[in-house]
């Protein structure tokens, strides 16, 4: 079973995560931010990852620390779960439509953390979630998981639709990349290592 469990406690947050890459998209989420829970559930359903996530954050300050720290810890759990990277597809991409929104996501499990974020969306709130912290989540996840991630908004203006398409596209792309390659059990790299 490809799973990872991480607990992290700082002066700003306490985060406990269990991530199973060979799941069915089931979640148990409690971040204290309703819309963020909805987005993480959407991500997991399209990645087919099981995720248990509990967070106690300094929401009296704002949502930034909680969201970013979830990205850090989920990225670290992903590294534990993916293991030596042998026998994986390594890359995945998705073009995800949601009503007027269209998002493209591409992922390489490269062991080189990088985020290219081209989601030009007006700042504001979706429920209890500030739009600008989405980028912080994806950057923290990508850097800590060693992923090269490109996310691009091709169309859309409704913030809820756009962010939901982003999380779903990323989930689908990462799920494909983490998938098992039934033909090749080596590390998918010309270097022989990732």
Question: Can you characterise this structure?
Answer:
The structure is a single chain. This protein is of the alpha+beta class and 194 residues long. The protein has one domain (3-178): Ribosomal Protein S5, domain 2. Helix content is 34%, strand content 31%. The chain is globular and about 45 Å long.
Topology (SSEs and partners):
Layout: E1 3-9, E2 13-20, E3 27-30, H1 34-47, E4 50-57, H2 64-82, E5 91-98, E6 101-108, E7 114-118, E8 125-126, E9 129-130, H3 133-145, E10 148-155, H4 159-178
Helix pairs in contact: 1-4, 2-3
GO biological process, one term: L-histidine biosynthetic process
Family: Belongs to the imidazoleglycerol-phosphate dehydratase family.
Subcellular location: Cytoplasm
Task: Describe what is shown at a glance.
It is built from four helices and ten strands; from the N terminus they run βββαβαβββββαβα.
| Number of discrete helical segments | 4
What gyration radius follows from the Cα positions, in whole Å?
16 Å
Report the CATH superfamily.
Imidazole glycerol phosphate dehydratase, domain 1
Number of structural domains: 1
Q: What sort of overall outline do the alpha carbons produce when their principal axes are compared?
A: globular
